[in-house]
Amino acid sequence: MTMRITRTKALAKCAFAIAAFFALVLQPAGGQNNNAKSSPAAKVPSNGAVDDVTKSSASDVARTLRTAAEALGLARWSGVGGQRLPEVDVINTMEMWGSGTTYAPGPSDKPGEPRLAFKTEYHAAIGYNPPAMRVELTRTVSGAPQHTIEVVRDNFAWDESEIGAGLIPGKGVATPTMAAVSIRQLQLWTLPYGVIKAAVAAGDKAKLSTEKGATVISFPLSGQLADVIVRATLDPQNEIAKVETRAENPALADLNTETEYSDYADHGEIATDVKSPGHIVRKQGGHLLLDIKVKMLDANNPYLVFPVPQNVKMAAAH
């Protein structure tokens, strides 16, 4: 009974987020202007720039998010049987493959020297309803491959010895890693697609500013990440070029990250017009964490599931 109620609440939250996306982002700009309360400070300058955070209105933010969503291919018109349907958020699940370098966490073993770097194959399975992410890393360590699988779903985090581990007796091992929930959730919501979804969910807490000629969207995250502020910088093509996160609580310094995205293109094996960054560089606390080139993206809503093993649920309950 408890699980049914929890699922019902989760579905309600998802429905609210989708409704917010329709209302704030995907309606025509004219409709947004008509519904917005106007004031001298809320009007957009004639050149489209917003000089500071205090001059951004809800309609400014909605218009910017809509433009960024369209630049990624996140929102589009679609039709069934010749009938034109409203713009929708087309990405709920996706997979990304890449290769490059990952770095050992924590300080270097030798002061003044860079942290250990590993040649890495990267595969991420991503879902936003429910919010979940499975990251497979195959690192070359001392000439030998080392395979890890890190998973997060909602407020559960665990490592898998193989995909689906711990769901069937005798099939692999699922190791609870509840301390990693926040940092793994952060990876999901700082992807370009997650940034737009989270900014929409932030509602009137999302603000705009202009820094060095670039548009910056700032907003707080929620839930487990409620202490984290996100700053997303757009490039001239309205694609998300940089995402910075800062935790207000000094004890959460590991949530202070910076991720740069570049070389956007349709990396799908089957063209979908959904763009993904071709190069991702992530830092944590100013130190390099990941530097990969994206090989392929499947944004055709692949069938992905992230069931939580029973032993992980039990660990979270204690």
How far from one another are the termini?
Answer: 19 Å
Strand order of the largest sheet: 8-7-6-5-4-3-15-14-13-12-11-10-9
Q: Biggest sheet, open or closed, and with what strands and sense?
A: 13 strands, antiparallel
Order of helices and strands: HHHEEEEEEEEHHEEEEEEEH
What average pLDDT do the residues reach? 82
Please tell me the total number of domains: 1
What is the CATH class name? Mainly Beta
Strand residue content: 35-45%
* Number of distinct beta strands: 15
What structural class is derived from the secondary structure elements? alpha+beta
* Proportion in helices: 10-25%
Please compute the radius of gyration using only Cα atoms. Answer: 20 Å
Name given to the CATH architecture:
Clam
Q: What is this structure's SSE topology?
A:
Elements lengths: L1 H24 L3 H7 L22 H15 L2 E6 L2 E7 L3 E11 L13 E12 L2 E11 L2 E10 L2 E5 L13 E3 L4 H9 L2 H10 L5 E5 L2 E7 L7 E7 L5 E8 L9 E6 L16 E6 L2 E12 L11 H8 L1
Antiparallel strand pairs: 1-2, 3-4, 3-15, 4-5, 5-6, 6-7, 7-8, 9-10, 10-11, 11-12, 12-13, 13-14, 14-15
